[in-house]
Amino acid sequence: MALSRFASSSRSGSLLKPLSSAISLRRPISTDTTPITLETSVPFTAHQCEAPSRTVQTTANELLTFFRDMALMRRMEIAADSLYKAKLIRGFCHLYDGQEAVAVGMEAALTKKDCIITAYRDHCTFMARGGTLLEVFAELMGRQAGCSRGKGGSMHFYKKDSNFYGGHGIVGAQVPLGCGLAFAQKYSKDEAVTFALYGDGAANQGQLFEALNISALWDLPAILVCENNHYGMGTAEWRAAKSPAYYKRGDYAPGLKVDGMDVLAVKQACTFAKEHALKNGPIILEMDTYRYHGHSMSDPGSTYRTRDEITGVRQERDPIERIRKLILSHDLATEKELKDIEKEVRKEVDDAIAQAKENPVPESSELFTNVYAKGLGVESFGADRKEVRATLP
Amino acid sequence: MLGIARQKMLVLSSKKIRPAVSVLRNYSSAAKEMTVRTALNSALDEEMSADSKVFLMGEEITKGLLDKYGPERVLDTPITEAGFTGIAVGAAYYGLKPVVEFMTFNFSMQAIDHIINSAAKSNYMSAGQISVPIVFRGPNGAAAGVGAQHSQCYAAWYAACPGLKVLTPYNSEDARGLLKAAIRDPDPVVFLENELLYGESFPISDEVLDSSFCLPIGKAKIERKGKHVTIAAYSKMVGYSLKAAEILEKDGIDAEVINLRSIRPLDRTTINDSVRKTNRLVTVEEAFPQHGVGAEICACVVEESFAYLDAPVERIAGADVPMPYAANLERMAVPQVEDIVRAAKRACYRSVP
Q: Residue A220: is it exposed, middle or buried by C-beta count within 10 angstroms (0-12/13-18/19+)?
């Protein structure tokens, strides 16, 4: 079905030097693994280490996978926004649209043996680790098919078989937990690393520095990733941090500042960090990123920043648009093919939502399950203990 | 059997347990004794030996274990409870079995978010994906002359939280059996020891010395059978209650003393069975009285065994004040044996001289 086109190198834009100029027949877009060499948007800025090169290797296959994955995440988060406004999702809902490149780029640099832990803005990280749309939407709507069987909610997604450890509601707590995962990996001699993600808001938490100190003393393979979207809830970074150079805040620990809207830069940085951490202990990555939504669904996101700023980022730095331009300028796919992918993705999301809506709520007996891993036959009580009692299995 | 036990004792060579070994040599008959400190160390040693996933973390940990297992399994931490407790919980998420030692449970408040939100609730929030096989241990409650910030008992606070198990050993048998059970348990366990009991020696049977010995979690022990009044206590107050029972016996009151051993799960069955037999109850704790363990026991007995009560439930607890330093005030701030005797007599409607 692929039309044979002459991939002429004279068509290449200013960014690129495709090695595939000799090929005259364009192969189907999903299978082309001919290497393409590109440069990241900006060079990396390093602290206490030597920055990796801004030249990255990728393939058509990879770029299209990135495009699809990010488009899926984008569509998923926007659909969640509608579901929340329709009151099908309750409580807290923290959306990740704008930050997709971090989740996707990181996953591309890791294996499932590496661990990831994050805070409550976890829907897309869960998806990147192999979660399904149904698990996401069912969990958000409190149904049985949810990844936590409806008992966790938006902030508590987990996928242990992919080494994704949540999903945490307490700002900053996930950082020592992540260092603990790294400790366990080293203890077990697993030759793998942990990426512990946190925001610019959490970057000032004391426990982060306590955990970093211990990780550096014990040479733990921990990578602390600051997803700096420049606002901790409604507070701008310059009002919360005396030093917003988060990649330098580790002091004795090396750090790297990365354009978090460039999925290839994210992948390059994570690959570099993984190698570093396995040999030399903890390292900090600061991902310069942005969220289009407010902090959560109860925050319009416009009281502490201008709409112009948000539109500006969307126009100049959107991660999906960046990949789209790359794909088009390299003739890896047509505009129509990309739009078709977006249509497919939209349908996938709609189908998953429909399925999730049909899914039942948890059985009442689930109130009392999983309180303990080993309940010892102990009694637990409902609100009226003379009415509702259960034996914990 | 004695010879085997003696060999086991000698294997656990460290300065700390040598006194117990020499005590052993002084007894030629079957009666063996062991201090609570030795009991705890021997339990840790045996569990670490049996399972390579068990490791210790804390400030200035027992040197004997460090010498035996090395710095990869016995980790000395900086004085940063929030950080190292979070790290330990993360390691438990991955499947290791940490034993976190707090210098005292007063410092656990620095780490309480990790104990409650990161450890206790994870199995539930993840619908069983993330279990947390961790033990938090250390001295709890009043020591001697250490003042207000170093003397609080945390049993009621931790026992309020579903997802945690809370254990309070009294003697050496409790210390060994409950610590082993705690380490083997797949859920987060708060293990509340007592500074003043560490050096106390208790008789111990061969069964308890066996490396497979384990006590069930959630079961109280009747330390002294009686029929006139039930005295329910935990930790150091069990010893005081037993002394009170001896005094009461002289006045013709036969007290039944329950060693709770487990605050969560609370052994409501044993408590209620006892009260249905004696019809009178005194609860004893060192902790602050309001919203305490005694309050929970009283509510539980009123709910389950109201018709069996012949007198109001009596509650003996620490004074409702921060712990003072001056020795005479400190003495007034914790229960004494005479307080327990007086309360038992009140429960029996005897005049109190």
A: buried
Closest CA to B112 of B123, B120, B122, B103: B120
Q: What was the pLDDT predicted at B352?
A: 61
- Cβ-Cβ pairs closer than 8 A, A with B, add up to 157
The helix, strand and coil proportions of chain B, stated in percent and rounded to the nearest 5, come to: 45, 15, 35
B316-347 confidence digits (pLDDT tens): 999 999 999 999 999 999 999 999 999 999 99
Percentage of chain A beyond pLDDT 90 is 91
So what's the pLDDT on residue B79?
Answer: 96
The answer to whether the CB atoms of A176 and B114 lie below 8 A apart is: yes
From CA B311, how far away is CA B309, in angstroms rounded? 6
Residue B15 predicted with pLDDT over 80: no
Cβ separation of A181 and B93 shorter than 8 Å?
A: yes
Q: Distance between CA atoms of B58 and B83, rounded to whole angstroms?
A: 11
**pLDDT at residue B29 above 50?**
no
**Contacting residues for A351 by C-beta, under 8 A, at least 6 apart:** none
The identity of residue B69, as a single letter, is Y
Q: Report which DSSP code applies to B28.
A: -
A159 to chain B: which residues are within 8 Å by CB? 129
Predicted confidence at residue B61, as pLDDT, reads: 79
Which helix (H) or strand (E) segment is A195 a member of?
strand A194-199
User: Where would I find the beta strands (DSSP E) of chain B?
Assistant: 32-35, 54-58, 74-76, 97-101, 135-139, 165-167, 189-193, 201-204, 221-224, 229-233, 255-259, 262-264, 281-284, 314-316
Say which of A150, A160, A185 has its CB closest to residue B130.
A160
Catalytic residue among B150, B200, B249, B304: B150
Determine, for residues A181 and B90 on separate chains, whether the beta-carbon distance falls below 8 Å: yes
Is residue B265 predicted with pLDDT exceeding 90?
A: yes
CA distance A29 to A33: 9
Q: Ramachandran region of residue A198, left (φ > 0), alpha (ψ -120 to 50) or beta?
A: beta
* Contact list, A149 vs chain B (CB under 8 Å): 127
Contacts of residue A51, Cβ cutoff 8 Å, sequence gap at least 6: A43, A44, A45, A256
Burial of A88 (0-12, 13-18, 19+ CB in 10 A): middle
Residue A247 backbone phi and psi in degrees, to 5: -70, -15
* Record: contact B89-A177, CB cut-off 8 A: yes
User: What does the pLDDT average to over B163-182?
Assistant: 98
> ipTM of this predicted complex?
0.91
Give A32's pLDDT tier (boundaries 50, 70, 90): confident
Q: Identify the CA nearest to B189 among candidates B155, B219, B213.
A: B155
Secondary-structure percent of chain A, ordered helix, strand, coil, rounded to 5:
40, 15, 45
Pairing, β A35-39 against β A55-59: antiparallel
Q: Which of B117, B127, B186 sits opposite A148 (nearest CB)?
A: B127
What is the per-residue pLDDT for B213?
A: 96
